[in-house]
Amino acid sequence: MILTVTPNPSLDRTYEVPSLDRGEVIRATGERMDPGGKGVNVSRAVAAAGQRTVAVLPLGGAPGALVADLLDAQGIEVARVPVVGATRSNIALAEADGVLTKINAPGPELSAAEQELLLETVRAQSVDASWIACCGSLPRGLAPSWYAALVARAHAAGTRIALDTSGPALLAALRERPDVVKPNAEELAGAVGRPLATVGDAVKAAEELREMGAAAVLASLGADGQVLVNDSGAWFGSARVDAVRSNVGAGDSSLAGFLIAGGDGPEALASAVAHGAAAVQLPGSVMPTPGDLDPGAVTVTADVPVDRVLREQVS
């Protein structure tokens, strides 16, 4: 079982519009409602793969109830942490030409008691977990050190923990030695404070995160692939993608694939790449099933192409 923790989940409403005209009444041509948040997406990807997952979520108000109902309909167990504030509702406006405009609400502010209840719920639910995946930004009220406290408690209980966050929360958590961290290229560059121009730059930055405390680093480089750096060395993985339809949740799908495959070594990297490549070829935030995967399109090598220039360079 993979336990996910999303401290700031959301109810995501997407409206399809012909175009976005400021100051005008815009009539949507389509709409959908999804449970949102990076950890939520990891749970959705794990469930789509046919594996058991439990999502720990602070939920409040009518939006929180809807998030729980939507996840339940997808066969995902929810460990609900009641909070006074209403779960945030995010809005996405998808124009006909492919441009996506997102409005993300800040979310509720968690009290000290709610913060402690969230940690205690994770502890109680993690008894049968092979991994805990902690993902996304922190809501108001939680200090950047909150993830560090969660990593420390998980390790004290003997549970492996994967962390997908950024900024001060990532840097603070590194001192507690999370088992794997999963930054994208932008987050990796931000953590080391310099731009990334090549695959070699990304590997060096990942090695620096390991020096800061991460046991392993799984870094997504967008269309350029993924790198895994751990005690045994570095690997580079990439996949053939015929057509990109949506990259929403692709990184979360990759993390799910990595953990499903054991969360260690080149085999897990291959699974991460396969899941990410499948996700970008599906519409919206749809998560891939085993039938969507194409392992034959994936290449993983220890001969890392350090001089390869990244197509999406990060400053």
Automatic annotation (TrEMBL):
Record-listed E.C. numbers: 2.7.1.56
UniProt protein name: 1-phosphofructokinase
InterPro entries associated with the record: 1-PFruKinase, PfkB_dom, Ribokinase-like, Tagatose/fructose_Pkinase
Keywords for this protein: ATP-binding, Kinase, Nucleotide-binding, Transferase
Record-linked NCBIfam families: 1-PFK, pfkB
Recorded family membership: Belongs to the carbohydrate kinase PfkB family.
Cellular component annotations (GO), alphabetically ordered: cytosol
Gene that encodes it: pfkB
One GO term of the biological process aspect: carbohydrate catabolic process
The organism of origin for this protein: Streptomyces spongiae
SUPFAM superfamilies assigned to the protein according to its UniProt record, in alphabetical order: Ribokinase-like
Keyword flag Iron: no
Keyword ATP-binding attributed: yes
Entry's Gene Ontology molecular function annotations: 1-phosphofructokinase activity; ATP binding
Residue span(s) of domain Carbohydrate kinase PfkB: 16-287
